[in-house]
What we know:
Number of strands: 9
Helix content: 25-40%
Strand order of the largest sheet: 3-2-1-4-5-9-6
Distance between the termini: 16 Å
Low-confidence stretches: 1-9
Mean pLDDT: 94
Structural class: alpha/beta
Amino acid sequence: MVATATPISGSATVQGVLWSGDAQTWADLQEPTRRPLWTAMLDAAGVGPGTRLLDAGCGAGGASRLAADRGARIGGLDAAPAMIEIARERILTGDFRVGELQELPYADGSFDVVFACNAVQYATDPVAALREFGRVCSPDDRVVVAIWAEAEKCEYRDFMAAIRDSLPTPPAGGGPFALSAPGVLEGMVEQAGLTVIATGKAECPFEYPNPETAWIAGRSGGPVQGALRQVDEATLRSNVLAAIARYRTSTGAVRIENAFRIVTARP
């Protein structure tokens, strides 16, 4: 079965706008903090020369660049047009498209690896997105998904809590940690018809030269871009800087320790 062009619907209609809001800052300052996680995921998936890899929720293409450097053939999809433009500039040989995780515009079995870093929680229906990952992955190959570990293992929770607590009406649900409890993501993967073959964790500290850079980097993400529509920036900045002050090092830098959960599955 060959899928047609992906309509922008569901979560993509909202997320695409928010994550396009400050895409270049995200690419330059915030996305690189994920590099240890990307490396662990690429290792878990066995990505190497000739691997056909789909970076689902690829953002500005940072993970795709690492995979391409290993010799992989890259496809990437994201809801944010501004992110996709940066990814296209970074990997000229990649096939990057704007689209919806729940309606991937690829034929069955098009990829050897489907790679989704901290993306499925933004889907309106994460199980539907995972089912699509399995559909476009060739039989006996791998889908590798990463999300935040439990909140108590992620110091960046303080940054996110400062944003949430600044809102006039905090959003319902579990937020970024909604899928983080042990077994939740694995259950969704199985519900989507995939078979879990491995689970693990990756340590991924976020490091910034100073608190102001930490704020500017974090500000570029979709959730903060959304918050800026409800709260003035001065308030958000002040609340965030107070929340992360404890993570300042003796040199004046900021180091925030985090862990991410990685689930590897087969279609």
